[in-house]
Amino acid sequence: RRFSSARQAGHAEPIVIRGIEYPRDSFTNVTPKILSFIGKNKHNQEKHPLCLLKKRITNYFYTRFAGRTGNPIFSMYDSIHPVVTVHENFDSLLIPKDHVSRSKSDCYYINEKYLLRAHTTAHQSELISMGLDNFVVFGDTYRRDEIDSSHYPVFHQADSVRLCNQNQLCMRIQNEIEVFEKKPTEEFSYKQPEHTLDASKVVEQELKAFLIGLTEHLFGKGIQYKWTDSYFPFTHPSWELEIYFKDSWLELLGCGLIRHQILKNVGAGDRIGWAFGLGLERLAMALYSIPDIRLFWSEDPGFLCQFDVEDVNKNVTYKPVSEYPPCINDISFWLPETQEYSSNDFYDLVRSVGGDLIEQIRLIDSFTHPKKGTTSHCYRIVYRHLEKTLTQEEVNQLHKAIELAAAENLQVKIR
Ligand code: FA5
Ligand code: MG
């Protein structure tokens, strides 16, 4: 009652995000469902495929561009809040006022002034204005897009920038070249008016070599790729990189030389540089054979446990989990006092008794009795049938069989 009368009076409740109140207006189109994704930060969740990918990309940056003493020269940001201003997401990137990407049907607006970032490029100008020349930003991004196996309204991107001034560029190529034209030329398809062709080509080559290196680092040397010309208001020239994967060309990223005007606007007018932005889900889907983008939001242990690897460079090939619900049962026992015991023995036993119904087993607790010195283990077993829903009764029977077999074969005492 209170809410409906407030709304009738035109005082709709403000939108509250992290304790900050944003008044609603005619732009407001975020939904509670979309707002509920804020803070999930899948790219920062240990053992999540997006986090593994983030680490692999970051490692590549760190090794490819190391400082004199081997220290990384790229700054990495992965926790910048997704609420941005219209200025950050569009104006600072020279996106025209009437550009379709600004429309309410494409973006999630909080109100006229704020939206959920539609790309991580939204942070580019501010980070450059802080004085950074080399950085990479990972984050969740929001777009009112179709929903299918490769599109989702919330996804993740990585954006990167690398800048240098005249001296740094000459040092890099061990040659004297001019970065800027004395007088701007006309705009050519292959360069901006302010840049010399030499400088533009050097930066283009470094950008492309870096991105091919990254692609090969992720997919292996044999990967087939191609460059296509592209357009972004904030870069020129611009390209997209596609890889040939599973019988078709897949767009991985967009990139280009940063518009001189953008750099000038934030006090970096003496610099030239490149930027690129890529979609993490697309990359992860190809890399790990993940068939559907919705799986990245799965809390299902059958999905997540497949990415539980120590070495982030390990090749993981996702195996589809059955859609039938899991049944989770814990088992606790005292370890034998007179005989060797290892968790792997128990894992083998569970697999031999439970067969394909066992999706996952994990040690979740170990406890040593302070006086007796005996140790107890607790394991969590996830059961799941691939073709049907297991009943609790069936799981209980299996669980009982595992307890009996463990007591008999491993001399443990069920608690
Ligand atoms: C951009 O977002 C630019 N900001 C990229 C860029 C940055 C170019 C810096 C130049 C310099 P685009 O709209 O093409 O470009 O999106 C980049 C990537 O995000 C796409 O290649 C795709 O992998 C991913 N992507 C876009 N929309 C979705 C979606 N709905 N679901 C999942 N991934 C998406
Ligand atoms: Mg694109």
Automatic annotation (TrEMBL):
Is responsible for the charging of tRNA(Phe) with phenylalanine in mitochondrial translation. To a lesser extent, also catalyzes direct attachment of m-Tyr (an oxidized version of Phe) to tRNA(Phe), thereby opening the way for delivery of the misacylated tRNA to the ribosome and incorporation of ROS-damaged amino acid into proteins. Belongs to the class-II aminoacyl-tRNA synthetase family. Monomer. It is found in: Mitochondrion matrix. SUPFAM superfamilies: Anticodon-binding domain of PheRS, Class II aaRS and biotin synthetases. It holds the Pfam family tRNA-synt_2d. Its EC number is 6.1.1.20. Keywords: Acetylation, Aminoacyl-tRNA synthetase, ATP-binding, Ligase, Mitochondrion, Nucleotide-binding, Protein biosynthesis, Transit peptide. It comes from Bemisia tabaci. GO terms for molecular function: ATP binding; phenylalanine-tRNA ligase activity; tRNA binding. It catalyses: tRNA(Phe) + L-phenylalanine + ATP = L-phenylalanyl-tRNA(Phe) + AMP + diphosphate + H(+). Residues 138-301 form the Aminoacyl-transfer RNA synthetases class-II family profile domain. Its main location: mitochondrion. InterPro entries: aa-tRNA-synth_II, aa-tRNA-synth_II/BPL/LPL, Fdx_antiC-bd, Fdx_antiC-bd_sf, Phe-tRNA-synth_IIc_mito, Phenylalanyl-tRNA_Synthase. GO terms for cellular component: mitochondrial matrix. SMART domains: FDX-ACB. Residues 322-415 form the FDX-ACB domain. It is an enzyme of class 6 (ligase). GO terms for biological process: phenylalanyl-tRNA aminoacylation. This is Phenylalanine--tRNA ligase, mitochondrial.
